[in-house]
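User: Hello! My lab partner asked me to get a predicted holo structure for this protein. The small molecule is zinc ion, SMILES included with the sequence. Please write out the structure tokens.
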Amino acid sequence: MKTNANPMHSAHTAPRCTAKAKATGNRCKSPAKRGWQVCRMHGAGGGAPTGPANGAWVHGDRSQAVEQNRRTLMALVKLARDGAASWAR
Ligand SMILES: [Zn+2]
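Assistant: Hello! Below are the structure tokens for the protein in complex with zinc ion.
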């Protein structure tokens, strides 16, 4: 039977939390949450959900992805409008 459990990769060898104590300057040293630089005590997994799951979501027309698309499109429009004209000179 194949298993993902690796005896050499326990919580002890996991990446450590990068948070530092203000008083002592020592690292937290707790295992960091997967995909995070910090442990669960230092904010990993916290925060509001993004996208429609967020309570402030209204219609999505101003979401990050849409705004990024708009910026890319406007850059292309600007390029087509005066970028090409200045190159042709
Ligand atoms: Zn920590």
